[in-house]
């Protein structure tokens, strides 16, 4: 099964790093986050990757040129193409009714990707989205008048699920995307939802995206302290 990784964005919220390298090449420990992501998939037997490249694409191409661990195809999908457009540009690499994995080049998880695939196949939907409860950034305080009656330091959100960025898709997804300017997370997802073709796979374990320097430092500290849940 093929795994698409969207690697083309400019990563402007991490500009301290992305002025020099594309976001997926920002290092966590001594490896780019992109290598960590491919290792997660590889641990579950998924080793065929299609990298949808854009901003500073030549850096990614050069770094993985001599790679022998994974089967990697680098595809330049435009400098300013949106996420849906990048995916649509890969249509020719898939057969009719073919299932494939998709994720972004900036998120780490310890979820069971085999279970995600089984869920997708069982539900027979066009798309299955991993949903997660985001970590709360600050301590949570419960008040009664002016008294603090409960305090919990940085708990996980108790309500609400968000897009965790790890998908299984059927090639029918390409019928829901119109051109380079379309974001996958907007019209295509909305259309799938309306047609009841988008299913959720709940993951309550570790999940963390790398949007900011704070996120990068958090992930690096986990590596440094040998507490990185995504490494097996």
Overview of this protein structure:
- The chain has 232 residues and is of the alpha/beta class.
- It has one domain: Spore Coat Polysaccharide Biosynthesis Protein SpsA, Chain A.
- The chain contains seven helices and 13 strands.
- Strands 5-4-1-6-11-8-12 form a seven-stranded mixed β-sheet. The protein has a two-stranded antiparallel sheet with strand order 2-3. Strands 7-13 form a two-stranded antiparallel sheet.
- A hairpin with a 2-residue loop joins strand 9 (140-144) and strand 10 (147-152).
- The longest helix has 12 residues, at 213-224.
- It starts with a strand and ends in an 8-residue tail after the last helix.
- The model has no long low-confidence stretch (mean pLDDT 92).
Question: Brief description of this entry?
Answer:
Helix content is 25%, strand content 28%. The protein has 232 residues and is of the alpha/beta class. The strands form 4 sheets. A 7-stranded mixed beta sheet has the order 5-4-1-6-11-8-12.
Which SSEs are present, and which pair or pack?
Elements (H helix, E strand, L loop, with lengths): L1 E6 L7 H4 L8 E2 L2 E2 H11 L4 E6 L3 H7 L7 E6 L6 H6 L10 E6 L2 E3 L3 H11 L3 E6 L7 E5 L2 E6 L9 E9 L16 H8 L3 E6 L3 E3 L3 H12 L8
Parallel strand pairs: 1-4, 1-6, 4-5, 8-12
Antiparallel strand pairs: 2-3, 6-11, 7-13, 8-11, 9-10
């Amino acid at each position: 099964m093929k795994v698409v990784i969207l690697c083309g964005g400019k990563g402007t919220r991490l500009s301290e790093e992305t002025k020099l390298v594309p976001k997926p090449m920002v290092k966590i420990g001594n490896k780019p986050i992109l290598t960590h992501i491919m290792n997660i998939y590889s641990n579950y037997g998924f080793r065929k990757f299609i990298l949808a490249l854009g901003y500073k694409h030549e850096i990614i191409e050069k770094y993985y040129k001599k790679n022998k661990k994974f089967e990697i195809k680098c595809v330049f999908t435009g400098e300013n193409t949106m996420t849906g457009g990048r995916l649509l540009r890969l249509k020719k690499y898939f057969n009719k009714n073919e299932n494939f994995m998709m994720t972004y080049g900036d998120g780490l998880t310890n979820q069971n990707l085999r279970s995600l695939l089984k869920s997708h196949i069982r539900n027979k939907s066009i798309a299955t989205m991993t949903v997660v409860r985001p970590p709360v950034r600050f301590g949570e305080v419960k008040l009664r008048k002016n008294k603090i009656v409960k305090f919990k330091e940085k708990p996980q959100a108790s309500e609400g699920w968000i897009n965790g960025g790890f998908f299984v898709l059927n090639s029918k997804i390409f019928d829901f995307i119109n051109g380079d300017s379309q974001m996958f997370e907007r019209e295509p997802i909305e259309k799938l939802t309306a047609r009841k073709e988008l299913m959720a796979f709940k993951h309550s374990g570790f999940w963390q995206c790398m949007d900011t320097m704070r996120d990068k430092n958090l992930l690096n500290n986990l590596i440094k302290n040998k507490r990185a849940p995504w490494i097996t």
